[in-house]
């Protein structure tokens, strides 16, 4: 029998698990554990996570991320019973879904929303996040657009991360809307074809 240990199989990380890390980082920043610069650095690394065993380096020094760490055995090694380094969130916040076909509407994202999905074809909405964003908040907009696009309004201090797949298209983030993450993080995903959304600064609170 070989004395060499059998290497453990690595498990690929999912979008849900990467989003869970982003949420922990925002909570830690809101609690004063991470500076704005540290928050941005770790968010960039979180978006590049490929395997679940890469999570620990980003959250092991943060109490808010203790539930994302693998269970440790007596020798300090991950327990064989642990199948993934990141369990699903204990309590998921509300999700919203809508469709815009040759039309548009005003959408106010409600506080507590973590995911908003929309399919737009020859249309687009005015999406306001002023009530939903805040320190420690991470919201994902999954926007699939074909010859369409939205106007997205964010308050000051929101970091905007664009992960959309675009063909002859793209999203545009105004310079004024590029915050430092002190007021939350907005992640934009989706497929764009001859389409794109504009992210703008929401200057006034809506009634």
Domain unit count: 2
Distance between the termini: 72 Å
Q: Gyration radius, to the nearest Å?
A: 19 Å
Give the % helix.
10-25%
Task: Name the poorly predicted regions.
Answer: 71-93
The total of helices stands at 3
Report the β-strand fraction as a percent range: 25-35%
N-to-C SSE string, H for helix and E for strand: HHHEEEEEEEEEEEE
What is the global morphology? Answer: globular
Helix and strand composition category: alpha/beta
Major β-sheet profile: 7 strands, parallel
- State mean pLDDT (0 to 100 scale): 83
Number of strands: 12
Pfam family, one: DUF1707
Domain DUF1707: 11-63
Organism: Tessaracoccus rhinocerotis
Protein name: DUF1707 domain-containing protein
Summarize the model shown:
The protein is built from three helices and twelve strands.
Would you give an account of this structure?
By secondary structure, this protein is an alpha/beta fold. The protein folds into two domains: 15-68, no CATH class; 95-201, no CATH class. It is built from three helices and twelve strands; from the N terminus they run H-H-H-E-E-E-E-E-E-E-E-E-E-E-E. It has helices at residues 15-30, 36-47, 56-59; strands spanning 95-101, 106-108, 115-121, 126-128, 138-146, 151-154, 159-162, 165-167, 172-173, 185-189, 191-193, 198-201. The strands form two sheets. Strands 1, 3, 5, 7, 8, 10 and 11 form a seven-stranded parallel β-sheet that branches. Strands 2-4-6-12-9 form a five-stranded parallel β-sheet, with no helix packed on it. Helix 1 runs antiparallel to helix 2. The longest helix is centred in the first third of the chain and has 16 residues, at 15-30. Mean pLDDT is 83; it is low at 71-93.
């Amino acid at each position: 029998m070989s004395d060499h240990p059998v290497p453990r199989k690595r498990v690929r990380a999912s979008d849900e698990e990467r989003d869970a890390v982003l949420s922990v980082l925002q909570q830690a920043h809101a609690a004063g554990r991470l500076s704005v610069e540290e928050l941005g650095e770790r968010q960039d690394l979180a978006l590049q996570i490929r395997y679940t065993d890469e999570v620990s380096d980003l959250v092991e020094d943060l109490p808010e991320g203790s539930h994302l760490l693998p269970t440790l055995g007596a020798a300090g090694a991950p327990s064989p019973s642990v199948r993934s380094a990141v369990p699903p969130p204990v309590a998921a916040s509300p999700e919203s879904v809508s469709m815009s076909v040759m039309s548009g509407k005003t959408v106010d994202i409600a506080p507590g929303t973590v995911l908003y999905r929309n399919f737009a074809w020859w249309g687009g909405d005015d999406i306001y996040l002023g009530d939903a964003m805040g320190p420690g908040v991470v919201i994902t907009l999954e926007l699939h657009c074909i010859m369409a696009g939205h106007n997205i309004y964010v308050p000051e201090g929101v970091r905007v991360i664009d992960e959309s797949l675009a063909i002859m298209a793209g999203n545009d983030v105004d310079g004024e809307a590029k915050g430092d993450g002190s007021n939350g993080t907005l992640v934009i995903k989706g497929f764009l074809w001859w389409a794109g959304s504009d992210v703008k600064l929401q200057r006034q609170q809506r009634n």
